[in-house]
Amino acid sequence: MLVEDDMSLAEWFSDYLTEHGYLVTLVNRGDVAVELIKTDNPDLVVLDIMLPVKDGFDVCREVRGFYHGPILMMTARDQEMDEVLGLELGADDYVTKPIKPRAMLSRVKALLRRVNNQEQTSLESENCIQFGQFHLDANSRTTLLNGYKVPISSNEFDVLWYLAQSAGQVVNRNELVKAIRGIDYDGFDRSMDIIVSRLRKKLGDDANNPFRIKTIWGQGYLFVTDAWD
User: Fold this and answer.
1) Which of 72, 88, 220, 229 has the fewest Cβ atoms within 10 Å of its own Cβ atom?
2) Among 67, 126, 117, which residue's Cα sits nearest to residue 92?
3) At what angle do helices 30-40 and 56-63 cross, to 10 degrees?
4) What DSSP string describes 150-206?
């Protein structure tokens, strides 16, 4: 699904993606996008920020309550705070206009490939992870805490699963970025910090003094094994 109010640009991108085998739904309003994402459950959403009625930030915030597929945010505003906010709200990636169609196609392929790999891993895996009242199920990709389902995105689940698999051990940022995104950590990428921050909030961790997913300064993250009773 491509959510973009500039219809000439949207049709251009849509035609290009269609030529490469994708079925594209075009939406030009934020409020309409929310309803269609809920009913259509697209494999991926490319979401512009500057939209009429409801902007891309509001759309991302609202749909993350029920949509767990990848969201690629797109904007003409080259501001770091926009990128940080988009990632904090649940976007998986962020691109700044103008972007060439081939670069857009590459981003789309990478996000969908990651989802497909995750689904294959889930089908093959029979493992669950449990610590006290915390339960992760790789088959259904669900997270339970104190008996309640925690609504987390696909990207968040991957990070949480990786950290939980290494419970009691420090996982450095480069290892985590490479495992999740397939690229080396460049020292400036804040995406993992943002994802971990979102997970802490959803898992009832203390933002100022985390005790479930700790930050070990200069080293990485530590999933604490005895903090889930």
Assistant:
1) 229
2) 67
3) 30
4) ----HHHHHHHHHHHHTTTSEE-HHHHHHHHHSS---S---HHHHHHHHHHHHTT--
Q: Are 213 and 196 in contact (CB under 8 A)?
A: yes
**DSSP-assigned letter for residue 43:** S
Q: What's this model's pTM, rounded to 2 decimal places?
A: 0.57
CB atoms inside a 10 Å sphere around CB 174: 16
Q: Phi and psi dihedrals of 186, rounded to 5?
A: -95, 5
10: which 2 tokens?
């949207």
Taking only the tens place, the pLDDT of each residue in 159-183 is 999 999 888 889 988 888 888 776 5
Q: Is residue 199 a contact partner of residue 152, using CB atoms and an 8 Å limit?
A: yes
> Which of 32, 40, 29 has its CA nearest to residue 6?
29
Whole-angstrom distance, CA of residue 155 vs CA of residue 158: 5
pLDDT digits (tens, 9 = 90+) for 3-22: 999 999 899 999 999 999 99
